[in-house]
Request: fold
Amino acid sequence: MAGLTTKLSNDLMELLGTAILVFTIQVTAGLGSTGAPFAIAAIFITLVFAGGPISGAHYNPAITLAVKLRGKCSFQDLIEFWIAQVLGGFLGALLGGIMTGTFTTIGVGEGFNFTQAMLAELIFTFVLCFVVLGVTTSNKATDNHYYGLAIGLVLLSGNVAVGPISGGAFNPGVALGLSFATGLNSFGYAISVVIANLVGGILSSFFFFLVAPDQFNDYTPLA
Reply:
């Protein structure tokens, strides 16, 4: 019973965290806030610190995939977290759109093309997931107090650097949540972003293995 309660708590944390993140994205984008990247990064940092001790504070299917490939979460957790994250993204986007009266989705930035946008999503999702693996799963970073800040700063850097190119999702939960809330508007682009994000997550675990092979000495992939 205790194990079931813990699983439900973890899933709920992932749902709430992703919902709050996407709510913030929807509101700042809907209001056209110039400080959107800073607001999004700030809320993500606080959510990572808040949820880290509970669920690991992924709030992102690509991060969960990278952690799974790293051998630090089970396949069941992967599926449950993915469901919670996508549902949370939808609820956050829906509530944010209702509050502002404006629903927004991500898309290719003006003056750029689809290939450039997908590269932007892949690269910064890779960086985000790679940093997560380094600061939260490395034995050498046990009990550090900077992990939330490190992860949030990647999100801030990505939104400032390539947000105008791709929309700056770096997160399938964000892409799908915003699209679902608008009645599947830009759904094709959202799916492309999801693929790019997941590939970025896969690559991050592969490169983490290359740069930190000693971390895999006791590697036991969870079923």
Remarks:
- The mean pLDDT is 95.
- Residues 2-30 form the longest helix (29 residues).
